[in-house]
Write a sequence for this structure.
């Protein structure tokens, strides 16, 4: 089934690169205004149109991918960081990738001494849009592996199923190797030996919690019908970075006033949904992990731990520290005494 791309906006990295170009290029800015865009974000279909009109370079997404932070994968990114080895992290990616990259079909396979990530166009995207998505996602892979392991693991092979885009210098800069074009499918392959690398921030308790949350998110996505359910899913998916009503309205391709009005019809509000997701996730983290209060605050979308502490006290009438101590005391009381 062909996807409607109007609600699939480019990454914040690509958006920043686009905004800079608009400021520097009056022709691009005028064309963007003529498209009736206003202040909203750029979607992938519009990016492809502007690229075809030679107003944007074809490698905009490719170069933007180099600035990727694994936290942009939302809960999946934090789960991958908590894994023991690169193999375990990639297993999580294969299991839950739909929570982070819903427009592309992603498969994983072992082929001789290579571990392959295979990207396919099952959403029937235009070839230009598909190429933009593939190149931005592939450009994140070296960055992801480095953030997980602290090691520079180069691609052993890159195959692309579309024609040469004449970005040889950018490919060399990003991947330090050149891809093969017009291949049967899009493949990014690394050495199988790299899968044994230990991760820098492994945390078995955190992994168990986030594995459950990824599964919840995957299950929730197949049943979300009401607007409040769709908003909750988006908050769960990117809680650390998508936590404003304007962020959600952009992702749903509706204006913020309409979002708030329709949520009110369901007897809720954006703030109530946000607080509920934040509270449940924060309680889970304090209960089952050793994350600091600052780390929990960042995970649920607060840049300052002091703001998180105030919010947590409002939700529970306890500070995060006292909540954690109370949980630990309760666990001690119910634990059997070993003699």
């Amino acid at each position: 089934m062909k996807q409607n791309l109007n609600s699939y906006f480019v990454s914040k990295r690509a958006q920043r690169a686009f905004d800079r170009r608009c400021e520097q290029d009056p022709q691009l800015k005028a064309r963007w205004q003529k498209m009736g865009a206003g202040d909203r974000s750029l979607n992938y279909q519009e990016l492809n149109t502007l690229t075809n009109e030679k107003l944007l370079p074809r490698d905009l997404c490719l170069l933007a991918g180099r600035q990727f932070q694994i936290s942009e994968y939302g809960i999946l990114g934090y789960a991958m960081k908590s894994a023991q080895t690169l193999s375990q992290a990639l297993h999580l990616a294969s299991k839950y990738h739909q929570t982070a990259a819903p427009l592309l079909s992603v498969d994983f396979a072992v082929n001789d001494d290579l571990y392959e990530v295979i990207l396919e166009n099952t959403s029937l995207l235009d070839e230009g849009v598909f190429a933009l998505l593939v190149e931005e996602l592939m450009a994140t892979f070296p960055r992801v592996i480095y953030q997980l392991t602290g090691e520079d693991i180069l691609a052993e092979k890159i195959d692309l199923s579309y024609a040469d885009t004449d970005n040889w210098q950018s490919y060399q800069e990003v991947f330090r190797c050149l891809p093969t074009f017009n291949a049967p499918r899009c493949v990014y392959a690394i050495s199988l030996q790299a899968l044994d690398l230990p991760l820098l921030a492994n945390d078995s308790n955190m992994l168990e919690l986030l594995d459950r949350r990824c599964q919840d998110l995957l299950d929730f996505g197949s049943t979300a019908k009401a607007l409040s359910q769709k908003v909750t899913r988006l908050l769960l998916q990117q809680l650390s970075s998508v936590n404003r009503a304007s962020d959600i309205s952009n992702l749903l391709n509706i204006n913020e006033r309409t979002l708030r009005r329709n949520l009110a019809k369901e007897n809720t509000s954006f703030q109530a949904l946000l607080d509920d997701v934040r509270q449940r996730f924060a309680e889970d983290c304090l209960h089952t992990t050793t994350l600091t209060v600052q780390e929990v605050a960042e995970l649920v979308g607060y840049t300052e731990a002091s703001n998180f502490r105030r919010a947590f006290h409002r939700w529970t009438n306890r500070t995060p520290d006292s909540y954690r101590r109370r949980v630990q005391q309760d666990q001690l009381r119910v634990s059997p005494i070993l003699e």
Notes: The first helix runs from residue 12 to 24.
